[in-house]
Amino acid sequence: MTSQELTEQIFKKKSFLCVGLDTDLEKIPTYLLSEKDPVFSFNKAIIDATHEYCVAYKPNIAFYEALGVSGWKSLKKTIEYLHSEYPDLYTIADAKRGDIGNTSRMYAKAFFDDLGFDSITVAPYMGKDSVEPFLEFTNKHTILLALTSNEGAFDFQTLKTGDEDLYKKVIKTSRTWENSENLMYVVGATKAEYLADIRKIIPNNFLLVPGVGAQGGSLEEVCKYGLNKDVGLLVNSSRKIIYASDSSNFAEIAAAKAEAMQNQMAVELERL
Amino acid sequence: MTSQELTEQIFKKKSFLCVGLDTDLEKIPTYLLSEKDPVFSFNKAIIDATHEYCVAYKPNIAFYEALGVSGWKSLKKTIEYLHSEYPDLYTIADAKRGDIGNTSRMYAKAFFDDLGFDSITVAPYMGKDSVEPFLEFTNKHTILLALTSNEGAFDFQTLKTGDEDLYKKVIKTSRTWENSENLMYVVGATKAEYLADIRKIIPNNFLLVPGVGAQGGSLEEVCKYGLNKDVGLLVNSSRKIIYASDSSNFAEIAAAKAEAMQNQMAVELERL
Questions:
Q1: What chain A residue is nearest to B176 in terms of C-alpha separation?
Q2: Over 70: is that where the pLDDT of B12 sits?
Q3: Which of A53, B61, B141, B148 could cross-link to B153 by cystine, CB 3.0-4.6 Å?
């Protein structure tokens, strides 16, 4: 999917919500555990219930990898279900990968070609040749970690390098890389005030914003500093939506939570 | 495995060689492709032939992930084979993971508990709470990317933050984290002269050194600057050993390459 098509979906649905599929066998309703593939059953129910209110789904790969072979099967079923039933939804592999060039190429192949994700999150520490193999893919996005939503973001990301913070240096440098038009950036919602500075460097790129909801970030703040004329935001919520209830109507309640966020987003979009 | 046990193995075998299992269906001998699990068949042949000359194996997870479900099965078979046949060999999941705390914990569980690796490589960009969940595991090591062997290492890792390079700041900061005694560090062989500086900060920690061989680093240089009294080095070679030949005697030739490196290492160890 192109950025333009994603923007069209956002205006059509009046939503820039991304639902994080951080599916954990210890947190899903226990009655699902007797199903053949509880992870897929849970994801399918969440997707069927919430797809009207969001434009993207983001499985965090760690949750699938923790289940080994069966986790990979569940991930594959989930992405195939999205492609066949809801092809207009944008998909993000939250994998935070990055390695030397020939190895990054293997990761890119795994997530873009084999699983068919529209995008993948990538860590910047290893620099240009660790990211460019992801950028080579047409109509795919590489979402670079810039400023993350966790406490540890302040350990290195906000260190001064010369006269600017490392995360700004990462963003600026990444813009010089080949096919940099395929970049999006992760910017944590718990640091919404930083978004104004970031928008000065990258007014047009999409930002994937985690940390609204369970991690305490505010949607209003994110919109105030992060929206651009084409929206340019995907705001993710995982736990606060998918684990809103562990009863048998968990999917309905997840849908209500997603709808509530979509309603807030519709208000923000009217201000554009 | 503890660091002490690893050191004992190194002195016993007169080797600190790690063989990288970057197993790629496009590079293994074509006649193996008719086997049921070509990746495992290749790994088994390489392991059986080289295990006398090395102390560790390091599958790079990207190569397995690129094959989806079947790749995870091959990885699992490989690590189970190592555990059952060669339990004295140290195992490294070269995964370069790192995420917010609850997610890093899922990765740690996947690689330490489920697959039973002795160690995993982890990226530092997200800071303390992204790494500490890995450090909690007893008798397991977390190998933090400090200075990598690729060109892109100079994009961010060697940036000055205050009066020192980012990679030094990463090393120093990581020593303040809980259970930091479980840390090892990745330091690329193509930057051997940096090892002297790094040894001033961490005289005792093990360093995993990629980049000797195909990437052009020199074993002599690495030893000159990197060896400590307990050795403290694991030097990795992947392509130069496992792909030394694509004929039917590829494993024998890989063994000869590994033996040649082991011989060089024995000479270096005698100087201690």
A1: A155
A2: yes
A3: B148
Q: How far is CA B141 from the centre of its chain?
A: 11
* B150/A65 touch (CB, cutoff 8 Å), yes or no: no
Q: How far is the C-alpha of A135 from the C-alpha of A184, rounded, in Å?
A: 11
User: Helices in A88-189 by DSSP H: which ranges?
Assistant: 101-108, 128-135, 153-156, 166-174
From the list B24, B69, B125, which residue is nearest A76 (CB)? B69
- Chain A interface test: which of B39, B67, B155 (most A C-beta within 10 Å): B155
pLDDT given for residue A214 in this prediction: 67
Q: Which helix (H) or strand (E) holds A74?
A: helix A68-85
Known catalytic residue: B191? no
The token pair at A258 is 């997603």
Q: Where are the beta strands (DSSP E) in chain A?
A: 17-21, 56-59, 90-97, 119-122, 141-147, 160-161, 164-165, 183-187, 207-209, 233-237
The 3-state DSSP class for residue A126 equals coil
Domains and CATH numbers, chain A: 3-270 (3.20.20.70)
Q: How far apart are CA B183 and CA B139, in angstroms?
A: 11
Share above pLDDT 70 across residues of chain B, in percent, rounded to a whole number: 99
**Residue numbers of chain A with a pLDDT score lower than 50:** none
Q: What angle do CA B207, B211, B217 make, to 5 degrees?
A: 100
Chain-chain contact of A66 with B153 (C-beta, under 8 angstroms): no
Burial code of B188-216, b = ≥16 C-beta within 10 A, e = fewer?
A: bbbbbebbeebbeebeebbbbbbbbbbbe
B76 touches chain A (CB under 8 A): yes
Q: Please write the tens of the pLDDT for every residue from A34-77.
A: 999 999 999 999 999 999 999 999 999 999 999 999 999 999 99
